[in-house]
Amino acid sequence: MAEPVSAQDRLDKIVVLIAANMVAEVCSVYVLRVDGTLELYATEGLNRTAVHLTVMRIDEGLVGTVAREAEPISLSNAQAHPAFSYRPETGEEIYHSFLGVPILRAGNTLGVLVVQNRAHRSYTEEEIEALQTTAMVLAEIIASGELTAMALPGAEPAARRPLHLSGLALSEGIGLGHVVLHEPRIEVTKVIADDLPAELARLDHAVDTLRASIDIMLEDEGVARVGEHRDILETYRMFAHDRGWIGRMREAVLTGLTAEGAVERVQSDTRARMLRMTDPYLRERMHDLDDLANRLLRQLTGRAGGPDTLRLPENAIIVARNMSPAALLDYDRTRIRGLVLEEGAATSHLTIVARALGIAAVGHVENIVGLVDSGDAIIVDGVSGEVQVRPPADVETAYVEKVRFRAKRLEQYAALRDLPTRTRDGVEIELHLNAGLLVDLPHIDETGATGIGLFRTELQFMIASAFPRTNEQLKLYRSVLDAAGDRPVVFRTLDIGGDKVLPYMRAIEEENPALGWRAIRLGLDRPGLLRSQIRALLKAAAGRELRLIFPMVSAVEEFDRARHIVERELTHLRRHGHALPERALIGVMLEVPALLFQLDQLFERIDFASVGSNDLVQFLYAADRGNPRVADRFDPLGPASLRALKLIADKAMAHGKPVTLCGELASKPLEALALVAIGYRKLSLSPASYGPVKAMLLELDLGALAAAITPLLESGTELSTLRPQLKAFAEMAGLPL
Predict the structure, then answer these.
(1) Worst-scoring range by mean pLDDT, 347-351, 511-515, 675-679?
(2) N or C of the chain: less Cβ packing under 10 Å?
(3) 213: exposed, middle or buried (Cβ count in 10 Å: 0-12, 13-18, 19+)
(4) In angstroms, what is the C-alpha Rg of the chain?
(5) SS3 for 734?
(6) CA 662/CA 433 separation, integer angstroms
(7) E strand segments, 58-96
């Protein structure tokens, strides 16, 4: 198979060898094409003139059934089967017995391998296994792309076909580049075994090691007795001890496969079946089995898990099922052009980090990990939610033009930089930026922003290999203030916990981490952590104004305790002769619904407030923003959330305290339209959204907007969302959205 011959010659030799070894009078290879049909690519026994001429639909004949169902079919009298389809040009009418197996790779069907005999014979299990083993080798030949040169335009093998996939736009932008799999597939280079007993022993040892590693994780004191993480590990342990799974891999070895080949073969077959299931629970288990099989392959090959984050192409597009914000920050951000996920949600912390880094991102792209290979050309459209895999030249050219058009739009936004953000009827709106990394700081001058409305201090902790010392924190905070100049900066104290895990701190597993021990709760329980950060912030702001907010505050008493820590640190610095901030303003992040019923007491104590709409809306609707099944079930532009947000704005005005909305709602022009309609005059948004939101506000008649929207909120409307009404107003007013 490794001879330096043409792809057609190689296929012709393969079918001859298979026919001889299986004592079959016919062996044929059918390849799935980009148009969804199956083409006869090689045959021994049928009429050779039918090669590349015989084409059938995937819903036609026995070959089509094998491809469609991704399951072997063995028949002693094929012509009696209702799916049998006679093709006169092949001369197959004299053959009665039929054995067809799918050519699978990562669970995806690439073609069908068939053997036939004139006699009415029943093929043995060993023969079926042997043919499946050969199909694995053929899958790699087809996936390599070497058959493409043999095909007519529009009839290329589907394995390397261009794909147009749709998902959920997470972060705006367009990225053109090459695939980098976050969890790279282990490439099995040796499929055929030399020593079957040795391969069985290797497989058994790897399974034992895998089971032991899962047991160790479950026995770790850091793993909670109950909760989602433990449930996942328990599922892994159940699969790792499943006799059926282990038995199928052992049987595959006995057919002549290496241990690695057996794992890959069983997992590809299992994945093919699960991809065709409609039950969401069973499809989720496919991910568990994928992960377990990859762990087993790493045991067998001795390869570490995860990508080589230090060796990225210049234009990397990260492809993953899902990943944590910390994992994304492990990559060289200067080389990342995009992110594609099988999961993901618009308000997840990973999405927030992607937006902060200016990375185009698309989520909910089904089976993307199984459809691409590392190095594949790929385009990510974070505006429309489309992903182009192995795009044809005309599509790539169109996207290059789209990138140029976006660049022109950015130039137009840049021309608005020095204009005051004032609506057409004269209302001033302050636009600030959300930030969290040093790479964000140049955006302040580029956009002409009023300041930084939210600096997420936890991002520095998430990208560090060890807990940042006070001096390291001091240096960062001073750099932020220097970059802002005389413009205000609001620092949020550490918001860790939930899905924001520090790699050097032991994770506390909780059943509901978003509602658990995180943010200010962790800070008040571990005051040393909070004190060291506040001390660094106070020192960095010496002679300047410091604005500080505490996240996840649920009760006025929590704010009082946190403010007391600030006052103690001020006293400590004063006593030891350190320069102090010219002024320290202390506020809270309003994101827990309980505070809606404590606003009067709260506004009497705080200097200012920031609204975290991401968590506030999540908690209002009890809908996990990171769960794709419910994240989009409730619209943040529904009356319930808008009334809650308006209540905050009204109370802030009544108490004479400034309030800024710094959640992701402010980063979308339509949502920003709703926010100014209900009274917000300070918005903090992602750098990429600054231009579009400002362009919309400059064209807005705010009085007319308020007159259209306020009555809907005050009338007790039963509308589930005000989105259509806002869109209609924007269209009638000619607002750019």
Answers:
(1) 347-351
(2) N
(3) middle
(4) 30
(5) coil
(6) 8
(7) 73-75
345: nearest Cα among 613, 612, 616, 627: 627
The sign of the CA dihedral 344, 349, 354, 355 is positive
CA atoms of 631 and 594, how far apart (whole Å): 21
Compute the distance between CA of residue 634 and CA of residue 638 in angstroms, rounded to an integer. Answer: 8
Active site residues: 349, 662
Out of 395-404, 485-494, 679-688, least confident range: 395-404
Strand partners, 234: none
pLDDT of residue 310: 59
What's the rounded mean pLDDT across residues 126-135?
88
Per the document, the length of the chain is: 737
Helix/strand/coil (H/E/C) assignment for every residue in 489-547 = EEEECCCCECCECCCCCCCCCCCCHHHCCCHHHHHHHCHHHHHHHHHHHHHHCECCEEE
In degrees, to the nearest 5, what angle opens at C-alpha 464 toward C-alphas 355 and 505? 105
More confident residue, 237 or 277: 237
List the structure tokens of 368: 């993307």
Predicted local confidence at residue 535, as pLDDT:
96
Q: To the nearest whole number, what is the mean pLDDT of the chain?
A: 87
* Spatial contact of 150 and 14, defined as CB atoms under 8 Å apart: no
Mean pLDDT within 279-304: 74
CA-nearest of 163, 159, 151, 161 to 40 is 151
Question: What's 355's DSSP letter?
Answer: H
- Which pLDDT does position 201 carry in this prediction? 93
Least confident of 470-479, 505-514, 530-539, 705-714: 505-514
Decide: 359 and 338 in contact? Cβ < 8 Å. yes
pLDDT of residue 207 exceeding 80: yes
